[in-house]
Amino acid sequence: MEKEKIDRILVINVNWVGDVLFSTPAIRALRKHFPDAHIACMVVPRCKEVLELNPRLNELIIYDEKGENKGLIGKLKLISELKARRFDCVFLFHRSLTRTLMVALSGIKERVGIDNPKRGFLLTKKIKPQPSDIHKVEQFLNIVKVITGEDDGKSMEFFTGEEDEVFARGFLKSHGIGEGDRFIILNPGGNWDPKRWPAGNFAGLGDRLYEEYKAPIIITGAQKDVELGEKISGMMKHKPVIAAGKTTLKQLAAIMKRASLVISNDSGPMHIAVSQGAKTIAIFGPTDPRITGPYGDGVYTVLQSGPVKPGCKIPCYDVRCEEPLCMKAVTVEDVMLEAEKLLKWKT
User: Fold this and answer.
1) What DSSP character marks residue 66?
2) Does the predicted model carry a pTM greater than 0.90?
3) Among 75, 103, 154, 285, which is most buried by a count of CB atoms within 10 Å?
């Protein structure tokens, strides 16, 4: 594939906030290699915010598979739209057969992606399946390296706008936190329950941190985490600020970049914190930080106990696990010890 013949590039991205963040080093590498190309990215609605201010991209194409692009008619409409854009090449970060078939039917001649038995015949450049234990950042980079030959660093990128910065300053000020003041974020959510550190642990940790450092505690999360944030607050002696459900992802990023420390379960917001350069403690249980942990430049640490009972293994994707002992094995004291290392100040 000759560089000078590639003028219009499409990236088919994945479906989760954290995974889309993992793709940003690969997108940056594409831009470095193709500085003058038109680069578009297809992404699902819930991940749009992660990329909509990314200067490496010229265009976002929203694939709303539960709405406008649902069913055969919706997919044919998208295929027609892709065909009209006349892309020269597509990089498939998503391994979906449906997405691969759609870009093939749209007439994109060069189709680059991970080979598998179901869709390999639709790819023009097949990437060998990669080791299961390498980080997803590296997995996406390996797809584009077939063409670029190199990367442009491993750090994730998430860009905010001035309105997000204004919101962050105003939100913090409304709770008595001025520009440059110290505060600590607790992010207790997670997209499935076994990845969540116990609420009582977050409550005890919040009180310990406040008593030790006299820094306000902010609890973040999505709308679905409001009840959890209120539960944790109700268990605390020193009441936190609840930001759960009150911010967009970009507004959350603008707040996180100002934090003295972010403590989070394995989740999209944890990766947002890392992308903003915030000092971060990531609490892991059933998932493997070698694959989905914080990555690239930054100051961060991972706490994980490993399997704690016979039959358990990591990674584990049993979303119905009712007794996630691997999360409970990480103690408040464990987190406090790491916090002391990352926070150089005391009262």
Assistant:
1) T
2) yes
3) 285
Residue 34: how many CB atoms within 10 A of its CB? 19
| Contact call for residues 206 and 236 (beta carbons, < 8 A) | yes
Report the CATH architecture of 3-148.
3-Layer(aba) Sandwich (3.40)
Which residues have a Cβ under 8 Å from the Cβ of 246 and sit 6 or more positions away? 171
Q: Per-residue b/e over 301-312, b at no fewer than 16 CB within 10 Å?
A: ebbbbeeeeeeb
Give the three-state DSSP class for 41.
strand
What's the fold here for domain 162-342? Rossmann fold (3.40.50)
Condensed to tens digits (0 to 9), the pLDDT of residues 89-101 reads 999 999 999 999 9
3-state secondary structure of 303: strand
Residue 77 CB coordination number (10 Å): 13
The structural domains of the chain, with segments of one domain joined by +, span 3-148, 162-342
Show the tokens assigned to 149.
């030959």
Separation CA 299–CA 55 (nearest Å) = 25
Q: Which helix (H) or strand (E) holds 17?
A: helix 17-33
